[in-house]
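Blinded run. Sample ID left blank on purpose so nobody reads anything into the name before looking at the predicted structure. Input follows.
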Amino acid sequence: MNDISIEDFRGGTDALDRMAHAAWRDEYGADSYPNLYSPDYLSYLMQGVDDPRLAIAAYDGEEIVGFLLNLPRMMRLRGELYRAALSCLLVTRKQYFRQGLANSLISEGLRRNEELKFDFTLFYLETGHRSSRLFRKLQAAGMPIERVKRMGTIARVLDLPTVRDSENVKPYEVAAMKLLGACNAPPDPGDPRIREAGKEDAPAILRLLNSLAKTVSLARVFEEKELEREIICPPLARTLVFEKDGDIKGVLAYVLVEHVGEMRVPWAWINHVYWGGLSFRERVLLVKSFMAKAREQGAAGVVEWQKNTYPVSALYGCRFVPYPRKVDMMAWRFRKDISLSGIPDVYEVQI
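Blinded prediction complete.
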């Protein structure tokens, strides 16, 4: 560890992708994992990262051996605005497992976040994995870490043969999906009220999504350019809108994420939904249009992370089923006068 330097990320997304792939393959074994380090996806995430202190890497000479990214946020917690960071993509080269490198990256990330005057840092832990065990130890040692919310996952397969060949899918799971009719993408309903959003729609979408902060306990708050970068960035990130009476009444935004199993296969992750102005039937139409569009882009399935931001009955109406993974949203507080423990509903993307 004496020869390791921790510094601003120098760039070189291909090398990071290769290093992360080796680490996560070792972690997940036969199961698939989301490749959040692919050069295209990482470039998409880093569009709004304009301070080099937010992207941290560990190097052994010229070789990258660790990485951590902090994404700046404005969050509304129980009606009050706070500056926060979403900390993500923590990874170390597998040869450095259990040697303290992950701890060193976390410590440097926290030091920088405090220097940048963030009020708290949010991060996700998948239950049962190394990072989850590491943070449990830090929590037990008295660090100001809280579990914000535990989230289940629901999913819908759009291409069963591809999922069966790529993922570690059991025969009984295949049979169940066939029985439920949840194994192929539905046809696009072709409703003229549903269309893909363009940059000119950003102001209207901004009003709808920012209004969620009035009803959700912990909610992201956007500026217009920030939102535009995140939801209208084809081919990775696209948004469908549902218009009624000349106004946008429904929004469904998603991003393509590569899942790596036996093959590298894109899935569509639902990131933003607003449909308070739609009936149940209209919501179902929007979901079906989304699934058809995602399949056209090559997605083998779609995923929704259950954060209680919006009612999901329309998803179940489109034969979404529980996906066997649990994820905890966690928080590291820099202020003693706030608590993020046990929040029932959250509006923030999954990374």
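Unblinding after everyone has recorded impressions. Residues 216 and 250 are 17 Å apart (CA to CA).
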